[in-house]
């Protein structure tokens, strides 16, 4: 029977075809959906490779756990409690990608065999033999995702608790650490589970954790930092001992993790300050990322905090200092700059920053030489190379000078010393950058003079700053400049004891210099901590927001406005000094980060200040 | 000349009688030969032979008488012309009052005679002091009949003439002692008959007015007897080292033999000849029966022990005495020599310290001689090439009074009388540096101030410092007691060269100072006296008291011709007592822990500074206690280089140490007393901060280091991590 034009027949055929198409489509979508849910053979959607961790801290997270649009069971096996899992060395230096890898991936469908899913995908009708697991609701999936993020992290951290340091109390954090993800599937259990997890993560005691290497090679400096923190708390009448939990890392990265575990499980701190050493900083940043725990890193390498939005740096900024110096150099019309740096590597960073800044300002780097500090011969050789007074290439001239010097010695009846033969210098530079201590600087000044250069501006960093820079007085240094992180010591926070020398407010007792430097770091970190302490109601995100919005007044910095830039680096003030006859002058200060010419002309106090230093 | 006698009438008449003409005078003038007479010849009877004989005899006698008279007259006239008939009072006084020129005597501060100043060496003795043997010996060989003759000895003259004709020369001269005295005092030295006659005549006259003893005494004191000695008193000392009274007979015989020819018979040069002469004298004594043969034989056998001849005043402080002589002449404005003026010069010399000074140099003789082997070769006066001789000199002064207590101008006065303490200009080297640091302290630098040690250039001048000091810091004190050069020059540059040189002159540096920075390191020459003035000023709380070697000069009659001004009148404040004290403490540090540390045991009571010039041509140590300042120098007169590790600390310091240690046993060192306005503290020697492990330093009150921390020390303790190591971790 052929299809006629009978309407009922046409209608019957159309209906049949449509129903067939519809059922095929349904079947196909089911297969597709099953394939998707298997996760074995199908790639994860790129846009949602990892759930946004912050979302777990959302207040609606618990509420959303009640919805069940799509269930995605977790497939991650639960690790047995009690097994310590230290952060592997590889993970210790983890990049964000590696850190992400430590987070449990999106839960694959349990019980769903990949091969069966692939096979099923090729058929519109799922194989009748394979049992079909019940699909996860969205809420369940969210629950699992959240727990997958936090639970392993806390569990791992839990294993780092030193034996005997913690008594199990079945706290919410402990529960979170060993949460049974299967409970996410049960709507009745899911919501309380999620709420409990959120509570666990967000509950904080209003106290601040402080992890520093109080023992070990940096114990002294760490102690100064602690003292600075104490001063910050005392200044506002707060009790350091009540609000700060101080932990000694012993100078080891594993110690940092262990202390962090105590702080988190035991003390439920709102934030952690630490990361004094590089390894410690890396460790804390990684945990910061995993735990979504705000940390303040006290380390020079600002980029260490990049992996975690919850990590901030509070430390003197070399790059900013170098920029300020480069700006001052430009303002003095110094174009051709030579770099003389110690070969120990200590000044490599600031030299690199300075070089980049000079070039950015249109200057030139005429020479880049290294020498060995405390090696006079090495320093002399560097200067000779800089001034082109080496014999090489000037042999004839040297012979002539040698002959003249010898004749003069004989005429005077004195012993001739060949080392005293000096060629005329060729000075083709405007200034020399010497990021070394004041002692080396003094000798360089003398070496320049010995080589018949009576005037050459020098540029330096904070290590120049010392009473010995001006005493004994050396005319050669007049006009030289250096940068520092501290301005007028009398204008430091009163909580920082910095007794200046009678001769100048820009100098303090040398034995106090390092003390004040680190106290200041601790003080500013402490002000930040103090601003966030005693607010147990703040959840993690709120703490984070509060930190990002901290102002200079709150942080004890001589600036208004926010103290952290967009990269969460503290705006540490920078000061440029110049050496005048018998005195030191504060040229200008950069209180916040803008290194513009306009802001550079402003000082913290509004004008350049001088302080005489009379011997 | 005597009064003009009237001509002797007897002679004239005798003469006129002799020349009575044979023919009576006819109208002729007197004296004119008479004209022949016209009277007829008188009987011209021929007599017999007897009358002719008588006439002849008469004529002969008359002629002879007239001749004698005439000769006598001529002789008389001639002698009268020579003025020999009466010896005038003036002439007499030349002899009788003649005393050998009175030597000027030099005494040390205790009044002991230490020397004499003379143009010729005399020791006047009286007749009574002369030993009998000496008198006899002189008379036996020179004038055996002295006691008998009247001034001349005719027999002796004849004897001498006879001996002369025979060619034997004889053992006696023809002149008596009296004649020799006359010849020595009154007559010129040329040999002539005229002089001889005068001599005899005057001798005769002298005998009338002086006794034999007087004549003999004059003779014994006046005659030159060789080696600069005039008179037997001087000869006794010169040859035998004893007074004339102590002479033995054989020694008297030797001295007696010198009268004839002191050069020929000089025993110090011609011992054998002198001995022969002595034997001649003894023989003459035997011949004159003054001695028996046996005694004479015994005397001849006795050995003669001569005293070693030294130039006069070589025994005690000869260099000092030379200096005193010069100073006395200046003080009295005397031109020429002071010797012979009979002055009594009372000096400042301390004989005990003088001996210690000489001993101090002598005890280093071995070291000096060994070191001399390392001197550069020099060409001597005779054109030969040899190692230079190493010399040493010492001068020691009381800073409070300026009195020179000891002076040794060289190692051997006999070899060289050149007085290196004031006649020699030498480079003081680092011994000049105290002036630089004193100026610094005056300008309120302090010992704890820091200097960065590095080569420096000042107008093409580049001082040298051992390389190991470059690149290190030092305090002023440490730079001073280690005698570092570049810090000193740098300091001087800051202070101003002219300021430093001006202060040096105030310190008593009288020698010219070159206006160049090398002077700060002692390249300008100075004398040891200059240096003694400088260091005495430090010792005397900043007051320079002009140096003196003479306290008083009196004439031989006791009249005070010169008296030294008091120390107060001779003093000048150069620096304040506080600065002087600070410098003293700095120089004590030189002994305690610096270049003078070989004498560290003395650092509790003394202070000082080494000095070494380029190539070690001059090596100094200048040091003091408040009551004794001593400067020692060692080097060669030829300014020869001394090779090897030679410094003032190695050569001069041992001498100074030896001397001062010994001197302090008898002359206790006065204590160094801190004046008001001085504070002290223990300070790091390199970084200048108060530091318990440091060295003690002294400061002016109000200028002490206020801090117990130093950036340099903090840096040094950072173990390479840098200053303000904020980024260490």
CA-to-CA gap between the ends of chain B? 122 Å
Q: Biggest interface: chains and residue counts?
A: A-B, 58 and 38 residues
Helicity range of chain A: 40-55%
How many domains comprise the coordinates of chain A? 3
Structural class of chain B: alpha+beta
What CATH architecture of the domain at 397-551 and 578-673 in chain B would you give? Answer: 3-Layer(aba) Sandwich
Query: Assembly type of the shown chains?
Result: heterodimer
| Number of continuous helical runs of chain B | 23
Q: Largest sheet of chain A, order of strands side by side?
A: 7-6-8-9-10-13-14-15
What does the largest sheet of chain B look like? 5 strands, mixed
What is the CATH topology of the domain at 397-551 and 578-673 in chain B? Beta-lactamase
Protein topology:
The complex is a heterodimer of chains A (about 625) and B (about 725).
Chain A: H1 7-38, H2 61-64, H3 89-92, H4 96-102, H5 114-121, H6 138-159, H7 172-177, H8 187-202, E1 208-212, H9 219-235, H10 240-243, E2 244-248, H11 253-267, E3 271-274, H12 278-291, E4 295-297, E5 311-313, H13 318-331, E6 336-342, H14 348-360, E7 364-371, H15 376-387, H16 395-412, E8 431-433, H17 438-450, E9 458-460, E10 481-484, E11 500-501, E12 504-508, H18 510-532, H19 540-548, H20 552-555, E13 574-580, E14 583-590, H21 597-600, E15 609-612
Parallel strand pairs in A: 1-2, 1-3, 3-4, 4-5, 6-7, 6-8, 8-9, 9-10
Antiparallel strand pairs in A: 10-13, 11-12, 13-14, 14-15
Chain B: H1 9-18, H2 49-81, H3 89-96, E1 104-107, E2 113-117, E3 121-122, H4 132-142, H5 154-166, H6 177-185, H7 193-209, H8 212-222, E4 229-230, H9 231-240, H10 249-256, H11 271-287, H12 293-301, H13 318-332, E5 344-347, H14 351-362, H15 365-372, E6 377-379, E7 385-387, E8 390-398, E9 403-408, H16 433-442, E10 450-453, E11 472-475, H17 476-481, H18 485-495, H19 497-506, H20 528-539, E12 543-545, E13 550-554, E14 560-563, E15 571-573, H21 577-593, E16 607-612, E17 618-625, E18 628-636, H22 648-666, E19 678-683, E20 695-700, H23 711-716
Parallel strand pairs in B: 1-5, 3-4
Antiparallel strand pairs in B: 1-2, 5-13, 6-7, 8-9, 8-18, 10-11, 12-15, 13-14, 16-17, 17-18, 19-20
């Amino acid at each position: 029977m052929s299809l006629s034009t009978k309407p009922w027949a046409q209608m019957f055929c159309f209906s049949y075809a449509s129903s067939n198409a519809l059922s095929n489509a349904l079947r196909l979508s089911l297969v597709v959906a099953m394939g998707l849910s298997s996760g074995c053979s199908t790639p994860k959607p790129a846009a949602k490779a990892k759930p946004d961790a912050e979302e777990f801290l959302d207040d609606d997270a618990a509420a959303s756990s009640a919805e069940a649009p799509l269930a995605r069971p977790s497939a991650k096996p639960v690790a047995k409690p009690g097994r310590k899992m230290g952060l592997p060395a590889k993970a210790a230096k983890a990049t964000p990608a590696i850190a992400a890898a430590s987070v449990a991936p999106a839960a694959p469908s349990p019980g769903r065999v990949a091969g069966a899913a692939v096979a099923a995908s090729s058929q519109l009708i799922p194989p009748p033999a394979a049992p079909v697991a019940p699909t996860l609701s969205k809420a369940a999936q969210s629950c699992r995702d959240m727990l997958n993020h936090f639970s392993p992290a806390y569990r791992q951290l839990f294993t780092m608790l030193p034996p005997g340091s913690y008594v199990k109390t079945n706290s919410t954090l402990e529960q979170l650490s060993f949460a049974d993800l299967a409970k996410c599937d049960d709507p009745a259990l899911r919501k309380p589970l999620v709420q409990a997890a959120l509570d666990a993560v967000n509950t904080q005691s209003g106290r601040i954790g402080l992890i520093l290497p109080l023992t070990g090679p940096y114990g002294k400096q760490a102690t100064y930092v602690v003292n600075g923190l104490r001063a910050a708390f005392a200044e506002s009448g707060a009790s350091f001992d009540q609000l700060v939990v101080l932990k000694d890392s012993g100078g080891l990265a594993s110690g940092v993790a262990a202390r962090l575990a105590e702080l988190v499980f035991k003390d439920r701190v709102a934030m952690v300050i630490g990361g004094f050493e590089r390894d410690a900083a890396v460790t804390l940043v990684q945990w910061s990322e995993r735990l979504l725990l705000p940390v303040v890193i006290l380390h020079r390498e600002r980029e260490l905090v990049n992996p975690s939005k919850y990590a901030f740096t509070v430390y003197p900024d070399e790059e900013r200092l170098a920029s300020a110096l480069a700006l001052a150099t430009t303002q003095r019309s110094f174009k051709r700059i030579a770099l003389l740096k110690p070969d120990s590597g200590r000044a490599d960073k600031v030299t690199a920053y300075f070089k980049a800044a000079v070039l950015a300002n249109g200057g030139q780097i005429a020479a880049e030489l290294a020498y060995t500090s405390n090696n006079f011969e090495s320093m002399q050789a560097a200067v000779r190379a800089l001034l082109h007074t080496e014999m090489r290439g000037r042999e004839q001239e040297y012979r002539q000078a040698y002959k003249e010097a010898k004749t003069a010695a004989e005429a005077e009846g004195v012993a001739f010393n060949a080392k005293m033969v000096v060629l005329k210098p060729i000075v083709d530079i405007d200034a020399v950058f010497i990021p070394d201590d004041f002692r080396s600087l003094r000798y360089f000044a003398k070496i320049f003079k010995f080589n018949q250069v009576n005037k050459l501006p020098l540029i330096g960093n904070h290590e120049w700053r010392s009473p010995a820079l001006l005493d004994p007085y050396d005319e050669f240094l007049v006009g030289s400049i250096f940068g520092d992180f501290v301005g007028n010591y009398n204008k430091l926070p009163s909580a920082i004891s910095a007794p200046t020398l009678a001769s100048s407010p820009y100098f303090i007792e040398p034995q106090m210099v390092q003390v004040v430097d680190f106290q200041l770091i601790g003080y500013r970190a402490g002000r930040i901590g103090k601003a966030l302490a005693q607010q147990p109601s703040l959840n993690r995100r709120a703490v984070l927001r509060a930190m990002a919005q901290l102002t200079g007044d709150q942080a004890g910095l001589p600036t208004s406005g926010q103290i952290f830039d967009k990269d969460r680096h503290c705006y540490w003030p920078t000061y440029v000094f110049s050496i005048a006859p018998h005195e030191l002058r504060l040229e200008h200060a950069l209180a916040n980060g803008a290194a513009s010419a306009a802001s550079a002309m402003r000082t913290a106090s509004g004008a350049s200040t001088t302080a005489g230093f009379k011997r | 000349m005597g009064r003009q006698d009237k001509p002797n009438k007897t002679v004239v008449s005798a003469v006129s009688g002799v020349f009575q003409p044979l023919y009576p005078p006819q109208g002729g003038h007197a004296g004119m030969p008479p004209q022949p007479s016209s009277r007829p010849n008188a009987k011209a009877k021929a007599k017999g032979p007897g009358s002719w004989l008588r006439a002849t005899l008469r004529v002969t006698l008359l002629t002879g008488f007239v001749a004698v008279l005439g000769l006598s007259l001529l002789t008389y006239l001639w002698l009268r012309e020579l003025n020999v008939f009466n010896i005038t009072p003036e002439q007499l006084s030349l002899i009788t009052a003649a005393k050998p020129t009175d030597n000027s005597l030099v005494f040390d501060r205790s009044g002991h005679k230490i020397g004499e100043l003379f143009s010729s060496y005399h020791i006047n003795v009286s007749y009574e002091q002369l030993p009998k043997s000496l008198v006899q010996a002189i008379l036996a060989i020179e004038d055996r009949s002295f006691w008998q003759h009247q001034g001349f000895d005719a027999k002796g003259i004849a004897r001498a003439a006879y001996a002369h004709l025979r060619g034997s020369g004889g053992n006696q001269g023809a002149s008596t002692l009296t004649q020799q005295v006359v010849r020595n005092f009154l007559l010129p030295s040329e040999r002539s008959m005229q002089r001889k006659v005068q001599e005899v005549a005057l001798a005769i006259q002298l005998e009338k007015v002086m006794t034999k003893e007087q004549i003999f005494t004059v003779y014994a004191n006046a005659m030159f007897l060789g080696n600069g000695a005039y008179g037997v008193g001087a000869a006794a000392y010169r040859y035998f080292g004893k007074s004339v009274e102590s002479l033995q007979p054989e020694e008297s015989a030797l001295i007696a033999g010198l009268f004839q020819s002191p050069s020929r018979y000089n025993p110090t040069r011609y011992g054998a000849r002198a001995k022969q002469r002595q034997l001649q004298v003894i023989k003459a004594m035997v011949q004159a029966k003054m001695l028996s043969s046996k005694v004479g034989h015994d005397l001849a056998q006795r050995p003669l022990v001569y005293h070693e001849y030294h130039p006069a005043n070589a025994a005690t402080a000869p260099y000092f005495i030379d200096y005193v002589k010069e100073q006395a002449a200046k003080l009295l404005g005397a031109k020429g020599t002071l010797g012979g003026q009979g002055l009594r010069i009372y000096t400042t010399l301390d004989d005990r310290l003088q001996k210690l000074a000489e001993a101090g140099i002598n005890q280093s003789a071995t070291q000096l001689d060994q070191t001399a082997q390392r001197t550069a070769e020099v060409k001597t006066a005779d054109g030969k090439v040899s190692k230079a001789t190493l010399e040493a000199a010492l001068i020691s002064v009381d800073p409070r009074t300026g009195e020179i207590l000891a002076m040794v101008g060289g190692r051997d006065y006999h070899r060289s009388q050149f007085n290196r303490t004031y006649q020699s200009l030498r480079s003081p080297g680092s011994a000049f540096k105290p002036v630089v640091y004193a100026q610094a302290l005056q300008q309120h630098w302090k010992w704890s101030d820091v200097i960065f040690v590095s080569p420096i250039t000042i107008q093409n001048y580049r001082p040298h410092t051992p390389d190991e000091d470059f690149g290190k810091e030092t305090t002023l004190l440490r730079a001073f007691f280690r005698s570092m050069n570049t810090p000193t020059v740098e300091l001087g540059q800051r202070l101003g060269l002219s300021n430093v040189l001006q202060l040096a002159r105030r310190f008593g540096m009288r020698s010219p100072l070159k206006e160049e920075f090398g002077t700060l390191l002692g390249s300008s020459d100075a004398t040891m006296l200059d240096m003694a003035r400088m260091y005495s000023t430090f010792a005397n709380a900043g007051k320079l008291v002009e140096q003196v070697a003479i306290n008083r000069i009196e004439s031989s009659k006791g009249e005070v011709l010169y008296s030294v001004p008091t120390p107060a009148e001779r003093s000048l404040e150069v620096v304040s007592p506080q600065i002087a004290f600070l410098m003293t403490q700095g120089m004590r540090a030189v002994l305690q822990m610096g270049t003078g540390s070989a004498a560290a045991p003395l650092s509790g009571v003394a202070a000082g500074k080494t000095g070494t010039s380029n190539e070690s041509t001059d090596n100094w140590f200048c040091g003091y206690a408040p009551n004794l300042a001593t400067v020692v120098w060692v080097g060669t007169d030829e300014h020869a280089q001394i090779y090897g590790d030679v410094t003032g600390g190695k050569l001069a310091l041992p001498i100074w140490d030896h001397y001062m240690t010994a001197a302090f046993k008898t002359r206790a060192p006065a204590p160094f007393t801190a004046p008001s306005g001085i504070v002290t503290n223990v300070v790091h020697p390199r970084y200048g901060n108060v530091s318990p492990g440091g060295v003690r330093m002294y400061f002016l009150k109000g200028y002490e280091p206020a801090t117990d921390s130093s950036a340099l020390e903090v840096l040094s303790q950072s173990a390479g991590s840098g200053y303000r190591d904020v980024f260490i971790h």
